[in-house]
Amino acid sequence: AFENAAIGMAVLDLGSRRLGVNRAFCTLLGYSREELLAPGARDVTHPDDVAEDLVQRYARWPARLTPTSAKSVTFTSRGTSSGDT
Fold first, then answer.
1. Please, are residues 2 and 22 in contact by the beta-carbon 8 Å criterion?
2. Is the separation of the CB atoms in 52 and 75 below 8 Å?
3. Consecutive 10-residue runs of the chain (85 residues): their mean pLDDT?
4. How many CB atoms lie within 10 A of CB 62?
5. Beta 73-75 vs 81-84: how paired, if at all?
6. What is the largest CA-CA distance in the chain?
7. At residue 27, what are phi and psi to the nearest 5 degrees?
């Protein structure tokens, strides 16, 4: 289900490192899976959205961890905005 989902998804650890990305996420951003999962991979979150992403990510921790959905702007490999993710 994850790999074949029509929407781009990434699995992050609590340190915001990407552990997995699906094909739609790679296509949306224009990066290969290897580029997005490489140690030190560039952050694709728009700087204006970083703080809000952190607030949403840690708002539920250490409570029961559940999947969350957040809107943020990301940068494609061409440096353009991908819109909401």
1. yes
2. no
3. 93 85 95 89 76 71 53 63 53
4. 7
5. antiparallel
6. 38
7. -65, -45
